[in-house]
Amino acid sequence: MADEQPDIPARLRELTRQRAAAFRKELFPYIPYVLQSGLGLVAVGAILAASACYTKLLADPPSGWTLHVAAAAVLVLAAIRAPMRTYLLPADAVFLLPIEREALGAVVRPALRASQVRGAIRTLAAFALYAPLYIRSPATEAAAPAHPWPLLALLLAALGSWNGWAAWQEKRPPSAPWRFGLRCARWAATALSAAALLYRPLPLSAPLAAASLLAVSLAHRLPAKHRLPWERLAAEEAAARRRWYRAFSWFVDIPWQDTRPARRGWIAWTAERIPWRTGSSWTYLYAKTLLRGESFGAYWRWTAVIALLLLYARPASVDLALYLVGVWVGGLQLTELRRVRFPEYARVVPQNRERRRRARAAVVRAVGLAGTLLLWLAAALPAAGSGAGLSSAQANDAGLRLAALAVGALWSGWLVPRRTTRIGEDEADD
Amino acid sequence: MIQGYRKILAPSASANAERLLSKKEGDVPMEAALEIRQLTGGYSTRRPVLHEVSFAVRPAEMVGLIGLNGAGKSTVIKHILGLLLPHGGEIRITGVRLQDDPDRCRASCAYVPEHPSLFPNLTVEEHLRWTAMAYGIGRDEAVSRMRALAERFRMAEAMGALPGTLSKGMKQKVMLMNALLAETPLLLIDEPFLGLDPLAVRSLLEVLDEARRKGTAILLSSHLLPALEKRADRLVLLHRGRVLAEGTPAEVKALAGLEAGADADLDDAFETLVLAAERGRPVG
User: Fold this and answer.
1) Which of A225, A318, B112, B194 could make an SS bond with A172 (beta carbons 3.0 to 4.6 A apart)?
2) Higher-scoring residue by pLDDT: A321, A160
3) With contacts defined as CB-CB under 8 Å, which chain B residues touch A348?
4) Partners of residue B246 on adjacent β-strands
5) Best of A274, A337, A349, A430 to disrupt the B interface by mutation (most B CBs within 10 Å)?
6) Which of A210, A240, A270 finishes a domain?
7) Which domain range does residue A234 map to?
């Protein structure tokens, strides 16, 4: 009789495998189109440029503190990112709840193991990139001999792996403040441990790192926890899917995916400045939709990072390239507004449908131009501040910068809005 | 229309029905806020859902649209909103033919769908603001109406909330507030009571009574027959896409052969008429 019992864990593992395969099957057809759209070329260019920079750094490591702080930051970022793909769906909370214990073993445990392995590999990869610089940089060459390679690599891999486990524990408390607090504690402990392991003697730094990680691990015992946080895992799974689709949709047309709004009060208020009149109703709707949407979240983070890099980037050619890439990718992110699908209600109120596309373009233009101007200022201001007089080289530089502004304005103010005026997904039958 | 039930009613009930309804045959008033004539339509021309549906809603009148699931109630409303194109017949809203000027017709009616369909990125207050803008309501007037509606539906504290954080009933309240804010001559409401708490149902009925007193014509599709029996001026019973019966609640009960003042209510009349139509044989 025992043979007739269904092997639930095996079935769950098979279900997860099927879902993962279905997701890949869903995504793969877009990859050739994404590569054809110019991304492949840009990626190859970026890899070549990064390789050239890396080789130059290896040949002549800088003596200041910037490199080893930046390297530690990259290593920490590689360690703390701990995605866990479970392929759970919202309906699983209903249908799989009775077999929660089995789901924990057959779905979550393999996903957690994979997350830990990936975390270790990612951290090791970051360290492998940094290691040659670590030995040669004047700032760290003294510390390097006191850190045996295999041991340091093992400790950093353990740090990456521990992040995978701790990130899973963070998902389990129902309380949002607890989850937030535990995440902050994990990030802080990881940053402290990585910096200590790299730059302080191991007999001191290893116990310090172990103690900080142990403290965070013990903190995970304090809050009440779900055994399996179904809804959170399903929501994270949906968010992972959205991220893939959003990234692809910058380059090719992909059916719109549901997004989760963010309140974003710091910027959403700007839509309130839109005049209160019938003709502006579409503009208002699009402005609020964009400013609270995920694509704007990606857009502003991207713009902020590029602006920060531009503040420090040298020489002018790197500055210019960074500015152009920043404006180009930012514009692509904004075109996603065309894929927004409004509920039926938008079609039954008396709004002029011909104004819809113009309103969408106007919103994209305003946001795009604001971002472009910000990036241009971030690129131009440090240069303007550094020169007392205007030499001929500086005059050329100023001319180049003005041309860059014009190109950015053309892209964000005309070409991108033009792309967004194409008929959207729910407008075909209007 | 009478042909529809003549086949299925007992002779006595049929005679009563003909007496009651003969006066309305072809009697579509000129001033009707909504006038549907011989509407045939649906999602596919090969398989129409509605067959020659005709009825009217006059100003200051509440008409209940009733019928089994799949009878065609929501399809009728989608046609009125212009979301579906008629295969035959015509729809007039405040005298304007829908096909001639859909924008003007849309400006004359407000709609509450069966399932709340809100914009996920707009707060409750922003929904109302957007509706006010679309309907051309000035800021001061809109703010005053918004406050009154928020008070009435006990939504004042939720005005800053995004729809994702609202319960189903609260979302339905937002849809109702949007529709009522516009104060249009015609109000189309599809199953408004789903998910509403008892206090909200009462508030809604009171608000609808007020709107009706002000002259608003209301077409209300619902399965909540006791509420309609009390409030609706007339009922239109749809069955398999055809008008099976039309009249005041008393007239519809009479059609079913139920005596006025008898213990039987509209639910009984509905059951009698629909089951008779299903069986294709006379009542009683």
Assistant:
1) A225
2) A160
3) 81-83, 106, 111
4) B236
5) A349
6) A240
7) 2-240
Q: Enumerate the residues of chain A whose CB falls inside 8 A of the CB of residue B126.
A: 284, 288
Residue A315 lies in a domain: yes
Å from B248 to nearest chain A CA? 29
Q: Report yes or no: A1 at the B interface, CB cutoff 8 Å.
A: no
Question: What is the CB-side half-sphere exposure of residue A329 using CA atoms within 13 A?
Answer: 21
Is residue B137 within 8 Å of residue B181, measured between CB atoms?
yes
Q: Which helix (H) or strand (E) holds A52?
A: helix A40-59
Residues A308 and A401 grouped into a single domain = yes
Using a CB-CB cut-off of 8 Å, the residues of chain A touching B107 are 350
pLDDT per residue as tens, chain B (284 positions): 444 444 444 444 444 444 444 444 444 444 799 999 999 999 888 889 999 999 999 999 999 999 999 899 999 999 999 888 999 999 999 999 998 988 889 899 999 988 888 999 999 999 999 999 999 999 999 999 999 999 988 899 999 999 989 988 899 889 999 999 999 999 999 988 877 888 888 888 888 898 899 899 999 999 888 888 888 999 999 999 999 999 999 898 888 887 666 677 888 888 888 888 888 755 54
* Facing residue for A347 by CB, picked from B83, B132, B138: B83
Assess whether A20 and A108 both reside in one domain: yes
pTM, whole model, 2 decimals?
Answer: 0.71
Q: What's the gap in Å between the CA of B215 and the closest CA on chain A? A: 21
Min Cα–Cα distance to chain B from A351, Å: 6
Same domain, residue pair A76 and A216: yes
Least confident of A89-93, A136-140, A324-328, B234-238: A136-140
Say whether residue B159 is in contact with chain A using an 8 A CB cutoff: no
pLDDT band of A338, cuts 50, 70, 90: confident
Provide φ and ψ at A121, rounded to 5°. -65, -45
Torsion of CA A103, A105, A110, A115, to 10 degrees: 90
ipTM for the assembly: 0.83
CB B257 within 8 A of CB B9: yes
- Please tell me whether residues A337 and A194 are part of one structural domain: no
Nearest by CB: B81 against A291, A292, A348 = A348
**B2-108+185-279 topology per CATH:** Rossmann fold (3.40.50)
> Are the beta carbons of B216 and B60 closer than 8 angstroms?
yes
User: Is the pLDDT higher at A94 or at A426?
Assistant: A94
Q: How many domains does chain A have?
A: 2
A293 and A267 in one domain?
Answer: yes
Cα–Cα distance measured from residue A390 to residue A384, given in angstroms and rounded to the nearest whole number: 10
Q: Nearest CA of chain B to the CA of A259: how many Å?
A: 9
A384 pLDDT exceeds 90?
A: no
| Angle of CA points A333, A339, A342, to nearest 5° | 130
Across the interface, of B119, B134, B175, the residue whose CB is closest to A350 is: B134
- Mean pLDDT rounded to a whole number for chain A: 86
Q: Which residues, other chains included, contact B132 with Cβ-Cβ below 8 Å and sequence gap of 6+?
A: A276, B139, B141, B142, B145, B146, B181, B182
Question: Is B103 within 8 Å of A343 when comparing Cβ atoms?
Answer: no
For residue A278, give every residue at least 6 positions away whose Cβ sits within 8 Å of its Cβ, in sequence order, or none.
Answer: A350, A351, A352, B133, B134, B135, B136
State whether A345 and B117 contact (CB < 8 Å). yes
Contact A284 B178 (CB under 8 A): no
Residues of CATH 3.40.50.300 domain(s) within chain B?
2-108+185-279
Minimal Cα–Cα distance from A167 to chain B, Å? 26
Cβ–Cβ of B164/A261 closer than 8 Å? yes
Q: How confident is the model at residue A62 (pLDDT cuts 50, 70, 90)?
A: confident
CA distance B179 to chain A (A): 10
Cα angle A312, A314, A318 (rounded to 5 degrees) comes to 110
**pLDDT of res. A70:** 80
